[in-house]
Amino acid sequence: MTEDRGPSERMPLFVPRRGFGDGAARRAFRPSRGLPAAVAALALLGIGGLTAVHVVSALLGLPVKIVPYDEWARWASTTAWNDGRALAVAAALTLIGLVLILIAVVPGRGRMIPLRTGDPDLVVGMPRRALARALRARAGEVDGVRTAGARMRGWHADVSVRTDLRDTTALEGRVRAAVEDELARLAPAHRVSLRVRVHGPS
């Protein structure tokens, strides 16, 4: 007969011995900045289109005045650099540039959590909700737990359980150990901080 393993003796789902480095795995699952990129591309397309229309129409001898270029050029040529309006325009353009750089550099929060595998050419993604469900199920298997819940917030797991036991100190330790065991079994590429809350009988 095959010995039935307890919850704490489960075999790991993935073997976290090698594989993608933590940084490489996070970059592989970094969410795309589709909306900001589309807005920037449309803005550049519009500016380029207006410039082309003005240049071509001027070469043909039929200048189109969609944009008051002459007035803008006159204002720019007669306005000093230390003028308040010029400084305001420069500050606005600088702010827009910094925002675009931050959007490109700072990664967003993806829907998938990368998991380590034993294959150096393979990285596996798990939805955040699926990981939360796995942690909730694992916490719910601990003796003394009546109901369990779990939420993923970034790289932080918030697990809460309810029990009918009066003394919840030992139960909190058992729940934490069980959830940490489940995290070790799934092997996220990034360390997941854990918070466990135990609610006793009201």
Describe this structure in words.
There is one protein chain. Helix 5 (128-140) packs across helix 6 (169-186). Mean pLDDT is 79; it is low at 1-9 and 11-22. The chain is elongated and about 85 Å long. It has 2 domains: 34-105, no CATH class; 113-199, Alpha-Beta Plaits, CATH 3.30.70. A 3-stranded mixed sheet has the order 3-4-5. It is 48% helix and 16% strand. The protein is α+β, with helices and mostly antiparallel strands.
For the biggest sheet, the summary is: 3 strands, mixed
The shape, in one word, is: elongated
Order of H and E elements? HHHHEEHEEHE
CATH class of the largest domain: Alpha Beta
Name given to the CATH homologous superfamily of the largest domain: Cation efflux protein, cytoplasmic domain
Radius of gyration using CA atoms only: 29 Å
pLDDT < 50 stretches: 1-9, 11-22
- Measured between the Cα atoms of the first and last residue, the distance is 44 Å
Going by helix content, strand content and strand pairing, the class is: alpha+beta
Helix content: 40-55%
Total number of strands: 5
Percent of residues in beta strands? Answer: 15-25%
Tally of structural domains: 2
CATH hierarchy: architecture of the largest domain: 2-Layer Sandwich
**Average pLDDT for all residues:** 79
CATH fold label of the largest domain: Alpha-Beta Plaits
**Order of strands across the biggest sheet?**
3-4-5
Topology:
Layout: H1 22-28, H2 34-59, H3 69-78, H4 84-105, E1 112-115, E2 124-127, H5 128-140, E3 145-153, E4 156-163, H6 169-186, E5 193-199
Helix pairs in contact: 5-6
